[in-house]
Specification:
Layout: E1 8-11, H1 15-25, E2 29-32, H2 38-43, E3 51-54, H3 59-62, E4 65-68, E5 78-82, H4 87-92, H5 94-99, H6 101-107, H7 113-118, H8 121-127, H9 133-140, E6 144-149, E7 153-157, H10 158-161, E8 162-164, E9 167-168, E10 174-182, E11 187-195, E12 202-213, E13 216-225, H11 234-240, H12 247-260, H13 271-299
Parallel strand pairs: 1-3, 2-3
Antiparallel strand pairs: 4-5, 5-10, 6-7, 6-10, 8-9, 11-12, 12-13
Helix pairs in contact: 11-12, 12-13
Amino acid sequence: MQVPAPFEYERATSVDHALELLARLGPEARLLAGGHSLLPMMKLRLATPEYLIDLDGLAGELGYIRAETTTSGSPPSEVRIGAMTRHRELLESELLAGTLAIFGDAERMIADPVVRNRGTIGGGLCQADPAEDLSAVCAAVDARLVIRGCDNERTVDMGEFYRGPYATAVGAGEMLVEIRVPLRPASGSAYEKVDRRVGDWAVAAAAASVSLSHGTIGSAGIALTAVGADVRSTEAEELLAGQLPSDELFARAGQLAAEACSPATDQRGSAEYKRHVVGVLTLRALQRATARALREAQSCR
């Protein structure tokens, strides 16, 4: 029987209250969002916090998906997602379906309805599990993450946020409060994943975003899940910039992504097999992202 080590429980009523609790309870306190990552680790005693600060009461304050504009009278320039937004809300969002379809792609393959009803985007990102889907999604679309402490607030990109397996830029006394994703004209995004059974952790997965400019690729983002190394595939992205979209180009980008990753052989497959999967999934994600970008460009004419 797996039983967590003893801990004390506090329930936060606001972001400020949660930060006050973190400051008072010290480094042995952990924030509890959906709980689907932290609680299993506690049951195995891989995590043994002395205090749990439950953030469920913050869903009203940090559970939102909305478009924002930085210039009055201009179209929305970014989508902002509160850290306590549930997976189900990401999946059902009409705003994301119309602007950042990659989130829906990923959410359809995350766990099951029970987990999606409780798990949150902030909890998943802060767990920083190498097989977690939304880290790659956020990296591919150039998301920036807002981290707040009692006396400061800062914004970091995914390259700075993700420090390695189970490690992020969120420091002691801080919490992730928001994810900001830029909206670019004539852009599309997609997520492709291979798992052993529906809702399982990825064997490998690829996230891609493409922005078009006069028929060529203005910029691209490629990020990988569950295959080690950096989340972002910068060499593949650089290959795509300024080029005409084609299956041959996307296949070459997939090859570069596969060469740059460092998967481990385990019960899910050999390293060689996972590299092959990365190449195929990167190709498919780029094809779907580009098709969506072309439709977006046509609708804006």
